Amino acid sequence: MNNEPPFEIFLAVAPGLEQALCEEAREKGFADPAPVPGGVVLQGGWPEVWRANLVMRGAGRVLVRIGGFRALHLAQLDKRARRFPWAETLRPDVPLKVEATCRASRIYHAGAAAQRIETALREELGATISAGAALRLMVRIEDDLCTFSLDTSGESLHKRGHKQAVNKAPLRETLAALFLRECGFHGQMPVMDPMCGSGTLVIEAAEIAAGLYPGRDRAFAFEQLASFDPAAWQAMRATARPGTPALRFHGRDRDTGAITMSRANAARAGVEAFTDFRPGPISDLTPPEGPPGLVIVNPPYGGRVGNKNLLFGLYGAMGKVLLERFRGWRVGVITSEPGLARATALPFLPAGAPVAHGGLRVTLYQTGVLGTR
Ligand SMILES: C[S@@+](CC[C@H](N)C(=O)[O-])C[C@H]1O[C@@H](n2cnc3c(N)ncnc32)[C@H](O)[C@@H]1O
């Protein structure tokens, strides 16, 4: 396997966060990652594919391009697909599904293309094709070039495997990690989320500070591939050097149910010893003991018209509390509406690009260090 040519590996991310993900990939030692629309591209072999799934906090999934060929018509696609070395990567006993897209090509019928590939897989590899299969082969025909990619993650990577309890509108872990990164958080300062919901931002921050791998407790689709090496994978997982941070990571929410949920999620993630979740409304918020750090919050947003005034009031009250009581801290507010961000009266720096999340577009608004007033 060592003399295999490297693959093109694609780390998918919500558009708007490609640069942040690229920085994370570089920091984590991946060679020459490059941002492209909707993701980051890098080169590597199977160990890089496994490691990307294990250590990358911002990527939504990891795709690997396993090969391809030119195909000008369906008979050629059929013939070349039959000769493709499927068994190097796929196992006959693991069901898979095939998804095809065609663009600017003589083969324009994606359904017919998928059917040719499925037949080749069934008849040459002995594979079972099933629409409900966990393993996904993506066939892309573009400019008459047919390429094959595998989704090596399976379930989306924001599912770290610790969050059973969620409240409404939880933030995706991948997005939480990248917003923390954009706020300059790398594990060395305390974090406070005054409206923490299920605790996503706080738990993500605590895991980063503790040096835990995000994929440590979940399964991946690549474990079902012929190229998988369980011993090498176990050795890779064992390279983590988690520690117990001296800092604390704090969550508050006026909803006691949310606090119970956050505590349970933190316990499952193994970060309960250095997270602190307590019930309380924003009006009662005070800075925790210790050095200043980062307030990061994802307040309610996108409410119906009748709720708008309440939301403006809530953002205004939050801004006032932070300006009056959180000198020396920096603030990041994740919200869908510029008007709500403005209602905080916080001194925001120019905002970055909006990011698609749960049918809305959310933006991270950041301040510098809050000063005396
Ligand atoms: C959009 S949710 C946060 C979701 C969270 N980031 C997560 O990933 O689960 C907003 C949270 O703000 C809380 N909240 C609303 N008004 C509040 C207030 N006045 N004080 C404290 N928390 C409040 C709600 O209970 C809700 O859990």
Question: Can you walk me through this structure?
Answer:
The protein has 373 residues and is α/β, with parallel strands linked by helices. Helices cover 30% and strands 22% of the residues. It has 10 helices and 14 strands. The chain has helices spanning 18-27, 46-55, 74-83, 110-125, 173-182, 200-210, 230-237, 256-269, 308-325, 338-343, and strands at residues 7-12, 34-36, 39-44, 61-70, 96-103, 135-142, 145-151, 191-193, 249-253, 275-279, 294-297, 330-335, 355-357, 360-366. The strands form 2 sheets. It has a 7-stranded mixed sheet, covered by helices on one side. β5 (96-103), α4 and β6 form a beta-alpha-beta unit. α2 (46-55) runs parallel beside α7. The longest helix is centred in the last third of the chain and has 18 residues, at 308-325. The N and C termini lie far apart (62 Å). The model has no long low-confidence stretch (mean pLDDT 95). The structure holds S-adenosylmethionine. The site of S-adenosylmethionine has 21 residues, from α6. S-adenosylmethionine binds at residues 167, 169-171, 194-198, 200-201, 253-255, 258, 281-282, 298-300, 314.
